[in-house]
């Protein structure tokens, strides 16, 4: 299932792995902020989240790294790419 379909079905949890400052500058409504450098230390927190986890960042690079790490630890997740794309998909779902 792709990110747009997951959002349409209101499945999972959106996690933004940008820095706190970047996140405060704009983010997807309802998303959680866990900076990439904190991901390994917060593995239990990810395990407790509704799955799949949709990861996003500025361009998709950091969320790709987080996706690879979490997947290797058995956590169901997808790389949503840019938070702007995830935000757009979510706004489309809410307007329909």
Structure description:
It is a single chain. It contains five helices and four strands; from the N terminus they run αβαβαβαβα. With 96 residues, it is an alpha/beta fold. A four-stranded parallel β-sheet has the order 2-1-3-4. The longest helix has 13 residues. The radius of gyration is 12 Å and the shape is globular. The two termini are 19 Å apart. 33% of the residues are buried. The mean pLDDT is 94.
List the helices and strands and how they pair.
Blueprint: H1 3-8, E1 13-16, H2 20-24, E2 32-33, H3 43-48, E3 53-57, H4 61-72, E4 77-82, H5 83-95
Parallel strand pairs: 1-2, 1-3, 3-4
User: Within the largest sheet, what's the order of strands?
Assistant: 2-1-3-4
The total number of structural domains is: 1
Give the ordered list of helices and strands: HEHEHEHEH
What is the architecture at the second tier of CATH? 3-Layer(aba) Sandwich
Beta-sheet strand percentage? Answer: 15-25%
Distance between the termini: 19 Å
CATH class: Alpha Beta
Find the count of extended strands (DSSP E, 2+ residues). Answer: 4
Properties at a glance:
single chain; globular; alpha/beta; Oxidized Rhodanese, domain 1; 44% helix; 4 strands; 4-stranded parallel sheet; 96 residues
Q: What's this entry about, in short?
A:
With 96 residues, this protein is an alpha/beta fold.
